[in-house]
What we know:
Chain B: It holds the Pfam family AMP-binding. The complex is a heterodimer. By secondary structure, chain A is of the alpha+beta class. Helix content of chain A is 34%, strand content 39%. Chain A has five helices and seven strands; from the N terminus they run βαββαβαββαβα. Chain B folds into two domains: 8-330, ANL, N-terminal domain (Rossmann fold, 3-Layer(aba) Sandwich), CATH 3.40.50.12780; 334-431, ANL, C-terminal domain (GMP Synthetase, Chain A, domain 3, 2-Layer Sandwich), CATH 3.30.300.30. The A-B interface holds A 5, 7, 9-11, 16, 37, 39, 41-42, 44, 46, 60, 63-67, 69, 98, 114 and B 378-380, 382-387, 390-391, 394, 412-418.
Amino acid sequence: MIINQxxxxxxxxxxRMHEVFDILGNVNINVSACSLADTxxxxxxxxxVSDPGEARRILKENQFSVNVSEVISFATPNTPGALxxxxxxxxxxxxxxxxxxxxxxxxxxxxxLKTDNVQKTIDEFQxxxxxxxxxxxxxxx
Amino acid sequence: MKTSIWNxxxxxxxxxxxxxxxxxxxxxxxxxxxxxxxxxxxxxQEAGVGPEYIKSADDLKLLPFTTKQDLRDNYPFGLFALPMxxxxxxxxxxxxxxxxxxxxxxxxxxxxxxxxxxRTLTGAGVGKDDFIxxxxxxxxxxxxxxxxxxxxxxxxxxxPISGGNTKRQLQLMHDFGSTVLAxxxxxxxxxxxxxxxxSLDREDLKLKVGIFGAEPWTxxxxxxxxxxxxxxxxxxxxxxxxxxxxxxFDCEYQCGLHINEDHFIPEIIDPDTLDxxxxxxxxxxxxxxxxxxxxxxxRYRTRDLTRLHYDTCKCGRTLVRMEKCTGRSDDMLxxxxxxxxxxxxxxxxxxxxxTTPHYLLVVERINNLDTLELHVEVxxxxxxxxxxxxxxxxxxxxxxxxxxxxxxxNVKLVxxxxxxxxxxxxxxxxxxxxxx
Lengths: 141, 436
């Protein structure tokens, strides 16, 4: 259930993000989810892609600093309070959230989550019968 | 503005007389270092010269050079020519990684220092009726105390306020009626702006003279400071290895800095061939001290590039004049009076990992203050997905540099391979300050 997420270090310069997507597009790698975290100095682009190994290789070849980190993805009903219930599980299990990003395209919300203990998060979610999404499922979206 | 001359005998003697005095003093100095400093003796033996070869100042060229590295290699006291019981003062270069350069003064050395600084201040028209506000740092740095001795020697009222604390500088400048300000030119500019922004009226201040040095500055900066502060600004030059401030100074005609050459004999050499260059040619300035007892130094390579002029000055002084230094024959930067070698930054970065990341130093002068920005390439091995860890990395570099070098620095993390490389070698420094 662990998903390998790519993160790319970006300077705050226009055109840099475009370059990343251009490189990935050219080798036919699809980006299923992404999020850009910015600070005043630099940005971090996080992505779930169809072929993380190849994406990493090609980005490194193009002189980007790339890091692979483990995240998980889950779905909740797209209703008020649904995410709150999920977060309560984490809070009660004393799991810290590093960051998350998500979107609700229809009757479900899809969330990518990074916590300080990925395996424990998976265990807790399974215990609570949450709908976890595997990497292969995610790539199909 | 007419100023006087502190030591008319030495400052206006004929070239022949000067040569004779320099020759006598050089012979004594070479004798002393040969018999008292094993390192010098070994170097001279290696070069095949002994004291008997040195008959006049013209024979200086036979002697081997001394470099900053020689001082470091003999850290701390290896080049001293007196027993430590005769050394009454130690100063050390500030803000270097590894070994600082240490200099020692005998009681007579301090007297010589006071003498050359008295000449310096007198050349700028400073006398016993003046109040001299010394805003150079006091401490291991030679700036503060050098000015201090000169001020006392000419009988001025010395205000040893040291650097920093701008608000207090302005208050005492006003309340004590300071007539002379001694500090780095960039701090003078900064103070000028602070005066503008304060409630003080220029009319309420008695300031008339500035004694500025310890960092390179242009004539344009001089005009700007003179206009802003409504003072006459004088340049001074010195380095701790030779004595500190007081090596050379401006007279009222400001056509080159007079070198106190009865104490410090200058030469200009080609930094590549090491040959002595004729009068008027641009090259590296080299000094031999001929009166110092604690740390006599033979043919010290300053790395400063300048020219020498031996004609008599309109002020009446015959002391040789050096032009404002136009650059360096090494990669040393002077930032807010602090000497900085790019290699120092490198050694800080090296401590973080086995190999040095690519970096670029950008030096700028913003609002008359030098700023230092360090770009570091975030290579894969430093890169973390978490923002907080990246920010910590930047902070760690910043703190390390600030604590070892003593200069504040902005650290900017940049992408790999974005720092320009020319011919495979990375550019390490971009100095955007306009230096003439």
